[in-house]
Amino acid sequence: MEKALILTDGKAGHENQSKALARALGLEVEILPVAFKSKVAKALSYLFDRLNIHSSLLFRLAANLPSTEKFRVVIGTGSGVFYAVKVFSKKLAIPSAVVLYPRGYRILGFTCVLSPAFDRPKKSSNVVEIPVNLVSNDEKFYQAGVDQFLSRHTPSRGAVSVIVGGPNKRSSMSAEWIRGELEKVFAENEGKEFWVTTSRRTPSDVEEVIDSFPFDYKLIYSREKFNPIPAFVKLAEKLYVTAESTGMLSEACTFGAAQVEVLDNLNQGKHKFRVFVDMLKDGGYVGSSRKVDMSSLYAKARCLLGL
Q1: CB-based contacts of 167: which residues, under 8 Å, 6+ apart?
Q2: Residue 107 and residue 82: Cα distance in Å, rounded?
Q3: β-pair type (28-36, 59-61)
Q4: What is the pLDDT of residue 160?
Q5: What is the 3-state secondary structure (H, E, C) of 157-192?
Q6: What's the confidence (pLDDT) of residue 276?
Q7: d(CA 5, CA 18)
Q8: What is the pTM (predicted TM-score) of this model?
Q9: Where do the structural domains in the chain lie, given as residue ranges?
Q10: CB count, 10 Å around CB of 38?
Q11: Is 3-131+295-305's fold the same as 139-282's?
Q12: What is the predicted pLDDT for the residue at 140?
C-alpha cells in the first residue's frame, strides 16, 4: 500500500489527527519526529515562509528517512510541524496536507489544509473546513478497544458514560462542580449502568468526588492507565463529555450511536471552545445521536491532493 509521511511534534493529539487523515486517504504511514532547534528558529520560520525560503536548517529530525521510500503526501498537525511540512513537500516533490489552521504561514503554500470551523479559517480554494477534530476512523481500533473493555467489565444493561477531562485556560473544574453534574447524570438516567473515565488532566480532588459515586465501571486515570473511550463510544447509549475536551467531543459526535451531552465547564467569552460547543449544538450533534459525516470532506481532500 502507498504511504504518507507524517511529521510529528510528539503530541499524541496532533499525531493521531495526522494518522486519521492518512487512514481516510487510504494510506499507510511512516512517522518522523521533528522539532525546531530553538524558539528563535520557530520565529524565523514565519519570516522565512513569507520570503519563500524553506530550509531544514531550522529544525532537527529524530531519524533519517529511508532512502528507498516513496511517499504520496506529507502530513502534519500543529504549529511545531507546519513549516517542516512545506520543507519536505518541496524536497520530495509531493503534495502537503496539514490539519488545524496554520496561522502565520502562507496558506496557499500548502496543497490542502483541513481546518476545524472553530479556528475560523480564511476562505481559500485549498482549505477544507471540518466541523470537528479528526479522530481515528479505523474500525479495528474500536473493536480492539471494545474487546479489551469487555475483558474487564461485562455490562448487564444499557449504559451511560461520563468522560471527564480537566481545566485549561478557557475552562475550570472543581470538586463542587463535578459533584453537582454527576448528581444530575444519575438522576436523569435511573435504571442504567454508569461508566466513567478521568484523564491525565483531571484534578485529584475531582477524581476523589468521582470515586465516591456508585459507578458500575470506573477508570481513575491517576491509578490506572487504560483507555476505555473507544468502548464508551461504541457501546454506551448516552455519552456525557466535559466541554473543554474537544477531541473527545469530536470522537463522540463522529462515531458510535450514543446520544451526546455536554458537561459545560467553560469560562465566559466567545473563545474557540465555546464556538466549538455552540457549533455542535447548532448542528444538532448535542442532545441527539446524530453523527458527523466526514466522507464528502475527505473526498475533497483527496481531490486537492491528487489521490
Answers
A1: 173, 201, 203, 244, 265
A2: 10
A3: antiparallel
A4: 98
A5: CCEEEEECCCCECCECCCHHHHHHHHHHHHHHCCCC
A6: 94
A7: 10
A8: 0.86
A9: 3-131+295-305, 139-282
A10: 11
A11: yes
A12: 85
CB atoms within 10 A of CB 119: 15
The residue among 80, 74, 79 whose CA lies nearest residue 37 is 80
What single letter denotes the amino acid at residue 157? Answer: R
Residues in the chain, how many?
Answer: 307
Reading the block at residue 124, the C-alpha cell is 481559500
CATH of 139-282, one of 3.40.630.30, 1.20.1250.20, 3.40.50.2000, 3.40.630.10: 3.40.50.2000
Low-confidence ranges of the chain (pLDDT < 50): none
One-letter amino acid at 94 equals I
Amino acid at 188: E
Q: Supply φ then ψ for residue 97, to 5 degrees.
A: -135, 130
Backbone phi, psi, residue 90, to 5°? -70, -40
- State in words which class domain 3-131+295-305 has: alpha beta
Provide the 3-class DSSP secondary structure of residue 272.
helix
Query: Are 34 and 60 in contact, with CB atoms under 8 Å apart?
Result: yes
CA neighbours closer than 13 Å in the CB half-sphere of residue 33:
7
pLDDT tens-digit series, residues 73-120:
999 999 999 999 999 999 999 999 999 999 999 999 999 999 999 888
